[in-house]
Automatic annotation (TrEMBL):
It comes from the Bacteria. Pfam families: DUF1177. This is DUF1177 domain-containing protein.
Length: 316
């Protein structure tokens, strides 16, 4: 279980002075040799601290070997919406989950349980993100633009990506816990990974849950199209397969709501990510069928235009 790490991470993030340096110091206290990078990122609405953690595997690229690298990205606008809202907001669940994963993997590494492949974890820490006026509660904004998030969090070394994001402000997901998406690769929405479904039902003890995606959801922000949220935005910046891991609720919950984070759900999602990292790095988990993807491109060509802003002259 990872509840210990989750509560420690949450305690650091649920703070008006939360910062990348504080989180880095916590991770180094677990494993002094941890590879943790923190740097500020400034956007049109403020600044945030980007944090990236590289956890080397026994047979990973950092060891000069060939095991694939899993990227784990925590998506959010911010951890808090101060001064409009007081405390940790629901929108921060993605960051809390992936940093919990980092803490647990570092603890495992220190105790001799080292994964086969490298794992790269990336998110950002902002305790006072802006909000957008809305009734009955304000929406969460972000201090930086989406392309800045992608440039700093979606790295070429990532062979596959799990994107973890709070996904509660909609009517299409109506259960509490977490849900996964179809695999998205280079503009294609592919079949759901059977391996990920197996891992999900093992870690939850329940039937796996998959949330619906539309073509709009996998296009870049800024095109005036509806998106369920930013969970699949990493897929617009890479050719690697991307799967969304959505933290969900039965009812609609605003991203800027406080007191809306459920520890059991975040812990469950974190364990799913950790188990996926184990299997993916050892070659026992596939995000998509390469033969099916190859056949799709043979029949229908590239869909990479869906990773672009599209026709800037307007809709025809």
């Amino acid at each position: 279980m990872v509840m210990k790490q989750l509560l420690e991470v949450f305690d650091i993030l649920d703070d008006s002075a939360a910062s990348g340096i504080r989180m880095k110091n916590y991770l180094l206290s677990i494993n002094p040799s941890a590879n943790v990078e923190v740097f500020p990122l400034t956007g049109p609405n403020g600044s945030t601290d980007v944090i990236r953690i590289l956890i080397p595997g026994k047979s990973g690229k950092t060891a000069g070997k060939a095991a694939p690298t899993l990227g784990v990205i925590g998506r959010l606008g911010g951890l808090g919406a101060r001064p409009v809202m007081t405390g940790f907001v629901s929108d921060g669940d993605g960051a809390c989950t992936v940093l919990t994963v980092a803490a647990k993997l570092l603890d495992m590494q220190k105790k001799g349980d080292i994964l086969e492949g490298d794992v790269i974890i990336a998110t950002h820490i902002c305790p006072n993100a802006p909000t957008e006026p809305h009734e009955p509660v304000p929406f969460m904004g972000s201090p930086v633009e989406m392309h800045q998030n992608n440039e700093t969090e979606v790295l070429p070394a990532m062979d596959a990506i799990l994107s973890v994001d709070t996904t509660k402000g909609n009517r299409v997901i109506n259960h509490r816990g977490f849900s996964i998406s179809n695999t998205v690769k280079a503009g294609y929405i592919l079949s759901v990974s059977e391996d990920l479904l197996d891992i999900m039902q093992t870690t939850t003890g329940q039937l796996p849950r998959v949330f619906p995606l539309s073509t709009q959801d996998i296009t870049p922000y800024g095109n005036d199209l509806y998106h369920i949220n930013s969970i699949l935005q990493p897929a617009t910046a890479t050719e690697a397969p991307v799967v969304g891991v959505a933290i969900t609720t039965e009812t609609m919950v605003a991203g800027c709501a406080t007191g809306a984070s459920h520890p059991a759900d975040l812990e469950e999602a974190a364990r799913f990510v950790i188990e996926t990292a184990k299997y993916y790095g050892s070659g026992k988990c596939c995000f998509y069928r390469e033969d099916q993807y190859r056949r799709l491109t043979e029949l229908y060509g590239t869909m990479k235009h869906l990773q672009t802003p599209g026709n800037t002259c307007g809709i025809r």
